[in-house]
Amino acid sequence: MNVMEFKVAHDERVYPPSEDSYLLIESINPEMSDSALEIGVGSGIISLHLAKEIENVYGCDINPYSLILAKQNAIANSVENIHFFSSDLFSSIKLGSLFDIIVFNPPYLPVDSPPKDLIDLSYHGGTDGGRHIRSFLNSFGQFLSKSGKAYLLQSSLYPLENTIDFLEKRKFWYNIKNCLKLDFETLHVFEIGFL
Question: 166-188, pLDDT tens digit by residue?
């Protein structure tokens, strides 16, 4: 998708749109998709982009301030086809619900101490940075339509081989759709689907 201009408010308790958000947006192919789910909406910038291309968009977050801000940003941009709700990954999504696109920009920084507040949840990836990636990989296939695609952002701080091994063992196809080299890491976007 092309990056569009949106009016986006900020809240210090919510992860702001950053390089990783825009890398994901540029990586998504919305063609032939009727429904999309974004896990961890933050400000809602990715969901706003999805809603311009896809009829039914759902966005969830564990941070209540993210949900409030994402709703405000949707209203400010006259976007009415996003449904925001509270969920820890897929915990609030009814089994049997299927999406043509699932997008996840996980918290991926390796951190030894537990999160202190809600904003820490948007960065804290566990001691190795892969806690939320592993949880996502273990569940997303139950919610992805047969011809659907998942888009997962992953930092080089967590070994790509771990994700690749998981996907190959579970018989998913994948493509590293996009990369962005930053000072201390490289960001990769996986596009994933059923074989």
Answer: 999 999 999 999 999 999 999 99
